[in-house]
Structure formats: C-alpha cells, structure tokens
Write a structure and sequence with these properties.
This is 3-oxoacyl-[acyl-carrier protein] reductase. The protein is an all-alpha fold. Helix content is 48%, strand content 0%.
Length: 80
C-alpha cells in the first residue's frame, strides 16, 4: 500500500504542476526519507547511517529549509 500511495502522491504532483504552470504556480513534493528525529533510536540510526552518501542522516531543519526554498521566489522555475 505504501508504494501505491507514494506513486499516487508523485503522480498527482507531476500532473498538477503541468496543469497550473501556465498560471505561474509551482507544485512540488518533498520526500525526505528517514529523518533524525525523536522516533529514531541509536540502533536504527546506526543501521541507516551507512546508506546515506553524505555521511549523515537528514535533520528536520533540512526538510524545513527545502520547503522554505521551494516556497520562495528563488524556486520560481522549479516545478513538478
């Protein structure tokens, strides 16, 4: 079910971005993957860490910074 929902989420994002692009509206989706927050214990963190090319697990502020960027005028050319 998770794969279906994720696929639908990104399909809707792509479709909607095309539909409203001519109006100057951008539509984007953020899928950060595992983020180091209160739910992640040391065992999970140690299991996941080798899978991240940057050598660290994303922090909540990384996601917040991306969302702020995508909502800003600096991202006016990024859609879909």
């Amino acid at each position: 079910m998770k794969g279906f929902i994720k696929s639908s989420y990104f399909g809707i994002t792509r479709s909607l971005s095309v539909e409203v692009a001519h109006l100057g509206i951008t539509v984007n989706a953020i899928n950060p993957g595992p983020t180091d927050s209160a739910w992640m214990n040391e065992e999970i963190r140690n299991h996941l860490l080798p899978k991240f090319p940057m050598g660290r697990i994303g922090q909540p502020e990384d996601v917040a910074n991306l969302a702020a960027f995508l909502a800003s005028e600096d991202a006016k050319w990024i859609t879909g």
